[in-house]
Amino acid sequence: MEKYYLDSLYNISEQHGMFCNITLLNVTGNNTGPKSIEDRLLEVLGPKRSPVFLPISLVYLLIFLLGVSGNLLTCTVISKHKKMCTPTNLYLFSLAVSDLLVLFFGMPLEIYDLWQNYPFPFGEGVCYFKIFLFETVCYASILNVTVLSVERYIAVVHPLKISYVATNKHAKRVISAVWVVSLVCAIPNTSLHGIYYLNLPEKVAESAICSLIGSLWIYNLVILITTACFYIVPVTVISGLYLGIGIKLGRERHLSRGTMRKNLCRRQVTKMLAVVVLVFAICWAPFHIDRLLWSCIMQWSVWTDLNQAVYLCVHLLSGILFYLSSAVNPVIYNLLSTRFRECFWDLVCTHTEDTTAGKDSTPSDIQPTGHNCGKHWSQHGPASLWNAFDTLWSPCPDELKLF
């Protein structure tokens, strides 16, 4: 007969929607015979491969392809077209960079964890990097969305002050500050994590997991503070800002023709950014609920079968929406921004025509026709659907487009 205890073992990657096995154990067992290390690892940590590995990996692959192509396109369009290099678009560029960091560096580690929950073979350095990366982009994303909303609020409600705020130099300073704050605020939670090993009774190398190893109460405090400062407060502030914008625009219905055209343009940009904020808030809500739920369960030791089932559902949803939030913004830009679509097709058609011309023509025959391509797309073929959508979405006159 053997009796052993494994207290407060948590194989959890809660901040990123990862689908590792979650085990909170104070195990007491009556065993009729000795067990191998593999049997004990299976009993405590569960199977090495997640049972949802295949379906979740396929979903992640689709999100990866959509997110990487869309965000790279966003960065390329903003950087290659001078007319797109505006303060608003610089904030969107910064948001796209944070999304690319998640997709390029975070998702591969996520998929590996699904394929092999343990042991974690990359060492403590990669464990720190993984936690630090996700914490940083989490904070940078919400701060980027917040400063973007503040910029829109000033542009619409206090247009006389926008001359100072709406400059590329000011936007770059704000973006730099956002990333510095995000990097600093990611340190506390990162410092609480590391490589955890089971002791049965000696340390088992095959049980290595990247997990919480610091004080639980400090971790819970960090989660409460970061959830308040980097989700609840920003979302509340942003909601108030867009409410103020809506009230301001609602009062400006009876205006001169020229002022009305400018107002339509501001409405289009504001509506597009409001959709970005709404999608962001929806996608990130399960992420923070996931963290708080796990923190509460650990704090009060109420890990029942019902709690576990609820937590796993939230955990699954938070992971998918976390990565989806990194892929959906370019789709929104393409749907709601005429200028973005034009620049997109300028880029695509220029590349296509250059390639075709390089094969079929001499260098002297090649003419730059990219900008005409974008206009052609806006006037013919399937683009008529976009034009109809633009009409419903209060389009800007071409000379007043901000995005």
TrEMBL record:
<keyword id="KW-0812">Transmembrane</keyword>
<keyword id="KW-0325">Glycoprotein</keyword>
<keyword id="KW-1133">Transmembrane helix</keyword>
<keyword id="KW-0807">Transducer</keyword>
<feature type="transmembrane region" description="Helical">
    <location>
        <begin position="52"/>
        <end position="78"/>
    </location>
</feature>
<dbReference type="InterPro" id="IPR005390">
    <property type="entry name" value="NeuromedU_rcpt"/>
</dbReference>
<feature type="transmembrane region" description="Helical">
    <location>
        <begin position="174"/>
        <end position="196"/>
    </location>
</feature>
<comment type="function">
    <text>Receptor for the neuromedin-U and neuromedin-S neuropeptides.</text>
</comment>
<dbReference type="InterPro" id="IPR000276">
    <property type="entry name" value="GPCR_Rhodpsn"/>
</dbReference>
<feature type="transmembrane region" description="Helical">
    <location>
        <begin position="90"/>
        <end position="111"/>
    </location>
</feature>
<dbReference type="GO" id="GO:0005886">
    <property type="term" value="C:plasma membrane"/>
</dbReference>
<keyword id="KW-1015">Disulfide bond</keyword>
<keyword id="KW-0472">Membrane</keyword>
<feature type="transmembrane region" description="Helical">
    <location>
        <begin position="131"/>
        <end position="154"/>
    </location>
</feature>
<dbReference type="Pfam" id="PF00001">
    <property type="entry name" value="7tm_1"/>
</dbReference>
<comment type="similarity">
    <text>Belongs to the G-protein coupled receptor 1 family.</text>
</comment>
<dbReference type="InterPro" id="IPR017452">
    <property type="entry name" value="GPCR_Rhodpsn_7TM"/>
</dbReference>
<feature type="transmembrane region" description="Helical">
    <location>
        <begin position="309"/>
        <end position="332"/>
    </location>
</feature>
<dbReference type="GO" id="GO:0001607">
    <property type="term" value="F:neuromedin U receptor activity"/>
</dbReference>
<feature type="transmembrane region" description="Helical">
    <location>
        <begin position="269"/>
        <end position="289"/>
    </location>
</feature>
<keyword id="KW-0297">G-protein coupled receptor</keyword>
<feature type="transmembrane region" description="Helical">
    <location>
        <begin position="216"/>
        <end position="249"/>
    </location>
</feature>
<protein>
    <submittedName>
        <fullName>Neuromedin U receptor 3</fullName>
    </submittedName>
</protein>
<keyword id="KW-1003">Cell membrane</keyword>
<keyword id="KW-0675">Receptor</keyword>
<feature type="domain" description="G-protein coupled receptors family 1 profile">
    <location>
        <begin position="70"/>
        <end position="333"/>
    </location>
</feature>
